[in-house]
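User: quick one, sequence for these tokens?
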């Protein structure tokens, strides 16, 4: 009788390309693994191994190849046949995905006493903790500190920036990711008590999921499968290879030059990160200006800040083709009728994200999709199948982790209890963690006029904020949009240091329908950036440059 083999999955950090997949496969095969399929996009390898194979040998082989293995996870016995459909696989709630939206749904459901199963095909924890918010923001902070060591505005203080050991920095980042993934995700499964199933989920019918040959049925479903980086249809791009927001965070050397297709929040953050670390960076954008959906004053302030840092900005670009040669990448564009070639050692594609719905076979569950494959939901988070709800990036709504968590909890309430709670995304803050950072909430001036408001707006330059003056860094701008008739605040838009901290006051002002006068009458702490909001409110009636410190 042939020896029993088992199928396994092992998460692997550090793979960024197809060559990495080959290195990992060779390493695992060298210690006895069979039928190895490594996938850098999923950050994992799947394979079969005999009962005598030592998991420590497998992990050591991956490390020796230069990558970081996670915990080995068994999938099923027998090389060819997954387990037959289990009897009694009936749940109150089945969740596809394991990010913020999925965990919020699971926690809410378990608190209500529901029997819950969660299906995850790749690394537990979703985008934010693994490849998004956590790893990018810790590297951005490191880049800021490095840049400030080389460039600061204070006389009499001498600092210098040495060389960058990006491999050490990325290793520290990976350790932080592993710790938070364990504390904020892995440990919570046993804490709350739901089942986790590994594998690709797809619908067999309107209330049945198939995973590794197993049938899972439930009273309700929440799809929170997230999104992956989108790739624009530029000739030559796919064949040339490129960085995404995921693989860029795994680079172990600072490229001498980097060209970036896209200048949304991901392009701005990662472009500035590598500029701070020493790369020559060029950002390319199809629209006539960066941040086209933001207030013009916000876009102008960021344009000035980025160009002052030496970042090249190419707007109004029509992309013709991408080439890759021995010396790097060549991106052919047309700008204002003139053809240009942008060159770089590395190429980063940062043009948005596409929902992960392709393999779910949602048509079998009678779920309607949008033009980009996103799941369409109503005001209760419900799909066209009344048993199915969706949350987070898979809907292509506001792509923020706090939105996904809010939607996941609401979906669980509605799916299990018929709560009929309605989504309210009218006051969603957005933060871009550049330096200076960008934060907005509510309506722009143009959006407010289009919505029928009689609008008034006021703008305050960074140089009018005392905190900016003592920092010797007056980059940025504050803007408040209000209803001229009622004085109610409709939008707050900020470019400044720690704009994400400042914007929470704007969130509260809009959420609770405060007026400009209400903001003026608050006590704003002196020498904080948040004081800029009060000063901006005061500019509706007076010239704040003619006020003493803290003048009411």
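Assistant:
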């Amino acid at each position: 009788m042939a020896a029993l083999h088992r199928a396994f999955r092992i998460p692997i950090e550090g793979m960024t390309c197809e060559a990495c997949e080959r290195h990992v496969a060779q390493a695992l095969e060298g210690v006895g693994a069979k039928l190895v399929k490594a996938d850098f996009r999923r950050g994992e390898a799947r394979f079969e191994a005999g009962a005598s194979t030592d998991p420590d040998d497998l992990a050591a082989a991956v490390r020796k190849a230069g990558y970081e293995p996670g915990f080995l996870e068994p999938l099923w016995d027998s090389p060819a046949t997954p387990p037959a459909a289990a009897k009694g696989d009936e749940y109150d709630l089945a969740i596809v995905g394991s990010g913020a939206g999925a965990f919020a749904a699971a926690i809410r459901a378990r608190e209500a006493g529901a029997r819950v199963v969660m299906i995850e095909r790749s690394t537990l924890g979703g985008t934010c903790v693994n490849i998004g918010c956590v790893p990018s923001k810790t590297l951005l902070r490191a880049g800021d500190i490095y840049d400030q060591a080389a460039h600061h505005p204070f006389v009499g203080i001498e600092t210098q920036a040495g060389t960058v050991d990006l491999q050490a920095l990325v290793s520290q980042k990976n350790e932080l990711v592993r710790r938070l993934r364990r504390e904020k995700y892995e440990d919570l499964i046993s804490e709350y008590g739901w089942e986790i199933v590994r594998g690709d989920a797809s619908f067999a019918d309107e209330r049945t999921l198939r995973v590794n040959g197993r049938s899972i049925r439930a009273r309700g479903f929440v799809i929170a499968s997230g999104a992956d980086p989108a790739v624009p249809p530029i000739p030559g791009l796919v064949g040339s290879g490129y960085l995404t927001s995921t693989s860029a965070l795994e680079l172990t050397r600072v490229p001498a030059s980097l060209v970036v297709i896209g200048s949304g929040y991901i392009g701005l953050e990662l472009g500035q990160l590598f500029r701070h670390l020493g790369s020559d960076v060029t950002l390319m954008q199809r629209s006539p200006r960066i941040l086209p959906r933001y207030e013009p004053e916000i876009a102008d302030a960021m344009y000035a800040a980025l160009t002052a840092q030496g970042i090249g900005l190419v707007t109004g670009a029509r992309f013709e083709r991408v080439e890759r040669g021995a010396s790097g990448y060549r991106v052919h564009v047309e700008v204002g009728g003139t053809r240009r070639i942008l060159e770089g050692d590395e190429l980063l594609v940062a043009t948005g994200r596409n929902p992960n719905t392709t393999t779910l076979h949602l048509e079998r569950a009678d779920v309607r999709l949008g033009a980009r494959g996103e799941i369409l939901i109503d005001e209760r988070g419900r799909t066209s199948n009344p048993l199915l709800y969706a949350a987070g990036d898979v809907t292509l709504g506001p792509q923020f982790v706090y939105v996904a968590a809010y939607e996941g909890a609401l979906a669980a309430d509605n799916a299990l209890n018929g709560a009929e709670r309605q989504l309210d995304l009218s006051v969603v803050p957005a933060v871009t963690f550049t330096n200076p950072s960008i934060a907005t909430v509510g309506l722009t001036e143009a959006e407010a006029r289009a919505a029928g408001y009689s609008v008034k707006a006021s703008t305050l330059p960074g140089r009018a904020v005392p905190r900016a003056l003592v920092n010797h860094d007056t980059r940025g701008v504050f803007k408040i949009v209000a209803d001229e008739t009622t004085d109610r605040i409709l939008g707050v838009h900020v470019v400044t240091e720690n704009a994400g901290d400042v914007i929470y006051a704007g969130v509260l002002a809009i959420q609770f329908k405060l007026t400009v006068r209400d903001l003026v009458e608050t006590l704003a702490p002196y020498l904080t950036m948040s004081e800029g909001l009060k000063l901006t409110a005061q500019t509706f009636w007076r010239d704040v440059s003619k006020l003493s410190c803290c003048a009411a």
